[in-house]
User: Fold this.
Amino acid sequence: MEQVQSGPWQSLRQAFETVSACADTNLKICRQLTDFSANVAKESISLGAALQASTLEACQEGQAYVFRRLSTLPDVPQNPTDYYQRSVHEFVASAEQGGKLLQGNTQAILGAMEQYWITVLQTSSSLQASYTQLADKLKSVYTSA
Assistant:
């Protein structure tokens, strides 16, 4: 007779422990996903700021190049060969500057991608560990019965 009474209570205890374990795991997973989202957002903001600064610098360099070329226009009729040579030299210097800015952007993007990947791996590992802990907890709840 005592086994009959312990059966429903044991089932009820198992159900409560199962619900509790699942709720704890869901809470832990929500925290992990929130941390993941925050890390991705932080890295995205850093990347956006770096790219925006680089773009601004490129625009300023382009504008300075145009103003330098325009400021020497009055001297063109006197010495067109010199103007042409200076223009080519200025263009090459500006192209080098643009290449360096592009290289910096590429490095920033690669760095951000690396951080994204690290964050994904860490989050995936912690999610897997959370589910493993839940499975172990549920096994212990139902094997002790």
Observations:
- The two ends are 17 Å apart (CA to CA).
- Confidence is low (pLDDT under 50) at residues 1-5.
- The CA atoms of residues 72 and 78 lie 11 Å apart.
- Residues 2-143 form one domain.
